[in-house]
Specification:
EC number: 6.3.5.3
Subunit structure: Part of the FGAM synthase complex composed of 1 PurL, 1 PurQ and 2 PurS subunits.
Strand content: 25-35%
Distance between the termini: 7 Å
Helix content: 25-40%
Number of strands: 3
Subcellular location: Cytoplasm
Radius of gyration: 16 Å
Number of helices: 2
Organism: Microbacterium binotii
Catalytic activity: N(2)-formyl-N(1)-(5-phospho-beta-D-ribosyl)glycinamide + L-glutamine + ATP + H2O = 2-formamido-N(1)-(5-O-phospho-beta-D-ribosyl)acetamidine + L-glutamate + ADP + phosphate + H(+)
Structural class: alpha+beta
């Protein structure tokens, strides 16, 4: 069964408080290799049958309308994995 993976991230121009908290924790642990950390969301939608362009368009609409908050987040990827 194919799975459609939708990745959502905070808009680049907005502060990511969760990412900042993780970055600070890494610094406290002595890990100084990363300039920033951003935390997003991953959704996995499993379907039976074939994935066609119409279904991917429907997933794009769902991602924009339901899975993300367009004011503060961007849908950065939609991928089909088998």
């Amino acid at each position: 069964m194919p799975t459609i993976v939708v990745d959502v991230m905070p808009k680049a121009e907005l502060l990511d408080p969760q990412g900042k908290a993780v970055q600070n924790a890494l610094h406290r642990l002595g890990v100084e290799d990363f300039d920033s950390v951003r935390i997003g969301k991953r959704f996995e939608l499993t379907v039976e049958g074939a994935v066609d362009d119409a279904l991917l368009e429907k997933v794009r609409e769902i991602a924009d309308d339901v899975l993300s908050n367009a004011v503060i987040e961007d849908v950065v990827g939609i991928e089909v994995v088998e």
